[in-house]
């Protein structure tokens, strides 16, 4: 399944056009590689998505074309969330502890 469609049906991102824009701005990685909206997503892939000031990492658990709202959360599992430093001073403080 295409990455932009997966982000939409899994409800990680509300709209497919927004998912495409996020991918075009290089804010999504599949298995630690930058991904385009047309990239294929497979079960077991690790996605890292940058939302504003945090990066959310999820693992693809299942792929369905049209899941119901209740099933959407079962398509992935959250591996973690990491804050993104805004500037060099903040980054140094974050890395030091």
TrEMBL record:
Pfam families, A to Z: S4 (PF01479)
GO term, biological process aspect, one: rescue of stalled ribosome
Keyword Heme: no
Keyword line: Protein biosynthesis, RNA-binding, rRNA-binding, tRNA-binding
PROSITE patterns membership: S4 (PS50889)
Domain named RNA-binding S4: residues: 1-64
MF terms in GO: ribosomal large subunit binding; rRNA binding; tRNA binding
CDD domains xref list: S4
SUPFAM superfamilies cross-referenced by the UniProt entry: Alpha-L RNA-binding motif (SSF55174)
Protein biosynthesis is among the record's keywords: yes
Subunit structure: Associates with stalled 50S ribosomal subunits. Binds to RqcH, 23S rRNA and the P-site tRNA. Does not require RqcH for association with 50S subunits.
Protein family: Belongs to the RqcP family.
Purpose: Key component of the ribosome quality control system (RQC), a ribosome-associated complex that mediates the extraction of incompletely synthesized nascent chains from stalled ribosomes and their subsequent degradation. RqcH recruits Ala-charged tRNA, and with RqcP directs the elongation of stalled nascent chains on 50S ribosomal subunits, leading to non-templated C-terminal alanine extensions (Ala tail). The Ala tail promotes nascent chain degradation. RqcP is associated with the translocation-like movement of the peptidyl-tRNA from the A-site into the P-site.
Protein name: RQC P-site tRNA stabilizing factor
Provenance organism: Brevibacillus invocatus
């Amino acid at each position: 399944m295409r990455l932009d469609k997966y982000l939409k049906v899994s409800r990680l991102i509300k709209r497919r056009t927004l998912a495409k824009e996020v991918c075009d701005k290089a804010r999504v990685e599949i298995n630690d590689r930058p991904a385009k909206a047309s990239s294929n997503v497979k079960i077991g892939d690790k996605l890292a998505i940058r939302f504003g000031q945090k990066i959310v990492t999820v693992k693809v658990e299942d792929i369905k074309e049209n899941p119901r709202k209740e099933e959407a959360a079962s398509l992935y599992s959250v591996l973690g969330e990491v804050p993104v430093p805004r500037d060099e001073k903040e980054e140094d403080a974050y890395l030091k502890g």
